[in-house]
UniProtKB/TrEMBL annotation:
Residues 512-521 have a biased composition (Basic and acidic residues). It comes from Acinetobacter lanii. Residues 162-173 have a biased composition (Low complexity). PANTHER family: LIPOPROTEIN YIAD-RELATED, STATOR ELEMENT OF FLAGELLAR MOTOR COMPLEX. This is OmpA family protein. Residues 502-511 have a biased composition (Polar residues). Keywords: Cell outer membrane, Membrane, Transmembrane, Transmembrane helix. The chain crosses the membrane at residues 199-219. Residues 388-505 form the OmpA-like domain. Pfam families: OmpA (PF00691). Its main location: membrane. It is found in: Cell outer membrane.
């Protein structure tokens, strides 16, 4: 199998999946596939001649056509006009943009190295294959990039007559027909060739006329066909309109190291680059939690700035960056430092709104909550214990589990010790411990983690003498938030334990969540 076919087989499915194209009409999918396939030999021709460009594209988080054509936007427009798939020009450009990064990745695999010169050398070895796949109309575009010599050879090898015809050239509707002057030669033409040329002109004219008539009749017939209710014009066939905005979030600890990172962007090539960047920059073995399914948009606005933003974040303590679509939220404990960071980021993402929020002091919040819970439990009369009072006091504390852990922090154990002593004095009571998480990560994994945390609280109370029959654990995961999950403070509030008290004699349930008590019969 030749190089072009290998790339078609590996690149086209990747790009189409990014755009949700596999669910579109087969004709649209075919047009998109053809557009990518047509672009590949042009891309390879440029890369083969410019190893430095390969390096530049590899370092970009989101390489684009503009990177190939630099200060020649007209050439880029000519390329898009020439490909002409049955989708909008803008969507065509997005398709081609998203084919660059995976092409570089596959070429690195095939060349055995991601080194630009190794890739360029590999392409040189396959120059004939690339040349044979190059469309004839691409010669002028490549010539505009200074690759005219290659383009000329490609045109010659494609069997194109290098001597222009004197017949007027048929063009698209927005370009005026032009008379191409005949070429001059010092060698007099032979008489037989003149006869052939005199016959060739009318024959070609008749063929072209027949084709035009056929196309016109076909267009008129299609124009009269009734449009079915379920038919969608090809130009409107785009990615899933209900796709969620692309999302990226990263938090640092007190020393500026990586604590958590999440990337939900429907572009596997881009998320792979992010993952490598985060692991390398923060020296972190895990990096980010990744979801590159097409339920998320394929791009963050101005996402080329992400690499520079990551470098700014490294070493900044106790800071969270949340990037959703065209908005970035920065949260940090030091307001002045957070604002200074925001000002630097604004220069990197001109089309993104950057805002700052005062970060929550987790340690202070936990210490205060534990103190309040201890005071509330101490105020309960041991001889007149009400289960709802125990649940209310327990709920005052914040049990700040470590990420992914169900180990109860030592600071909370004194509160649970007091609660256990009081619960042993209360008959006819069932206490349900409910675990909750924020929406970071997989929903099913969150539900299981919340159950494990709730069970850890139950197990600790049992270890302190509470009758196991009075206790049960439930994990609700991220399903019942009490705050927005769009900020770190909101997520902190959603990671919580709630208590539901049931009187086994009356069947009355009282749920305590925050400062709210809900009663059910």
């Amino acid at each position: 199998m030749d190089l072009i076919q290998i790339l078609k087989d590996r690149i086209i499915p990747i790009v189409l999946n990014q755009h949700g194209s596999t669910e579109q009409e087969p004709s649209v999918v075919a047009q998109k596939s053809t557009a990518i396939a047509t672009f590949l030999p042009i891309l390879l021709t440029i890369l083969k001649s410019k190893p430095d460009l390969i390096s530049s594209l590899q370092s970009s988080l989101n390489p684009r056509l503009g990177d190939l054509f630099g200060s020649n936007p007209i050439l880029k427009d000519n390329l898009l006009d020439s490909i002409q798939p049955a989708v909008s020009k803008q969507e065509t450009e997005t398709l081609l943009n998203h084919s660059i990064a995976p092409t570089l990745g596959v070429l690195g695999d095939l060349a055995g190295s991601e080194d630009p010169h190794s890739i360029s050398h590999y392409l040189q070895q396959h120059a004939d294959t690339i040349k044979g796949a190059l469309p004839v109309w691409a010669t002028s575009i490549l010539g505009g990039l200074g690759l005219g010599a290659f383009a000329t050879h490609a045109a010659a090898d494609s069997g194109v007559n290098s001597t222009p015809l004197s017949t007027p050239v048929t063009t698209s509707s927005h370009v005026a027909p032009t008379q191409v002057p005949p070429s001059h030669s010092n060698i007099p033409p032979r008489e037989p060739e003149q006869k052939k040329s005199s016959l060739l002109g009318p024959i070609l004219g008749l063929i072209l006329l027949a084709i035009l008539v056929g196309l016109l009749l076909r267009y008129c017939n299609k124009k009269d066909e009734p449009v079915q209710a379920d038919q969608v014009p090809a130009s409107t066939a785009v990615a899933d309109p209900v796709a969620q905005p692309a999302f990226f979030e990263l938090s640092t600890d007190a020393s500026g190291g990586l604590v958590t990172c999440q990337a939900r962007i429907g572009n596997p090539s881009f998320t792979d680059i992010i993952q490598k960047e985060v692991k390398s920059l923060f020296n972190h073995p895990v990096g980010c939690g990744i979801d590159s399914s097409n339920q998320y948009n394929a791009e963050l606005v101005d996402q080329n700035g992400l690499s520079s933003i990551l470098k700014l974040l490294k070493g900044v303590p106790s800071t969270t960056l949340t990037w959703t679509g065209n908005e970035i939220s920065l949260q940090g404990q030091d307001a002045a430092a957070t604002q200074a960071l925001a000002d630097k980021i604004k220069g990197l993402v001109p089309n993104v709104t950057v805002k700052t929020e005062q970060g929550i002091d987790v340690n202070s919040a936990v210490n205060t909550s534990v103190s309040d819970a201890e005071k509330a439990l101490a105020s309960i009369n041991p001889d007149q214990v009400k289960p709802i009072d125990i649940a209310t006091a327990l709920n005052l504390q914040i049990i700040n589990f470590a990420t992914g852990s169900d180990d109860i922090p030592d600071i909370n154990k004194s509160v649970l010790d007091q609660a256990a002593a009081l619960m042993n004095r209360v008959p006819n009571v069932q206490l349900t411990v409910k675990g909750h998480t924020d929406n970071t990560g997989d929903a099913n994994a969150n539900k299981e983690l919340s159950r494990e945390r709730a069970q850890a609280v139950v197990d600790y109370l049992v270890s302190k003498g509470v009758d196991p029959s009075k206790l049960s654990a439930v994990g609700l995961g991220q399903d019942e938030p009490i705050a927005e999950n769009t900020t770190e403070e909101g997520k902190f509030k959603n990671r919580r334990i709630a208590f539901e008290v049931t009187n086994t004699e009356t069947g009355t349930q009282r749920t305590v969540d925050g400062e709210k008590v809900t009663e059910k019969n």
